[in-house]
Amino acid sequence: xxxxxxxxxxxxxxxxxxxxxxxxxKKPHLILQEILNISPSLHxxxxxxxxxxxxxxxxxxxxxxxxxxxxxxxxxFTEQNCTHKxxxxxxxxxKWFKNSFNNYKENYWWPHxxxxxxxxxxxxxxxxxxxxxxxxxxKTQCTFQEHQKPWHPKDNYNVVKQLKIPFNRAxxxxxxxxxxxxxxxxxxxxxxxxxxxxxxxxx
Length: 203
Prior knowledge:
CATH class: Mainly Beta
Low-confidence stretches: none
CATH topology: Jelly Rolls
Number of domains: 1
Number of helices: 3
Strand content: 35-45%
Number of strands: 15
CATH architecture: Sandwich
Largest sheet: 10 strands, antiparallel
Structural class: mainly beta
Mean pLDDT: 97
Shape: globular
Radius of gyration: 16 Å
Order of helices and strands: EEHEEEHEEEEEHEEEEE
Helix content: 10-25%
């Protein structure tokens, strides 16, 4: 999969560098075709989940040899290792059902940290990535299961940067240092799936 890092921008969030790459894949339809040929699975499915009842949170995973040069490039760039080389293609695919549970006007959807750098390649339009200040409320949030109480009151968080992301833009950031999560400003993703490719790195 040919990728492009020439159209790049670096911004600072909470003192950390966040990298933005426009027109990331030279032929993004190729990665989309690969993803659509894979049956997604429900993410973190257990007996107490609301996944598939009040929303859909899905994941694709597979191994695509053509992704190896891109992953090797970002391993060198971040000086961290990809944590899932055996399944080097991973996605986040989500859709919310119209109900009172999904109250995006008063809540944020599961702000969280990852283990190291994360690369997100957005494969549809109208995406939002929220980057937050650190907050002591995060310890309270972590006492709940993600898919039992994914929404948490906006009063408990401070958004320091909201990135509005078009199709085929990639974001690389130290996700173990910046609290982050998908943003919903309207009900667009109640009627359409949100889709991105995620590559996770760790020292």
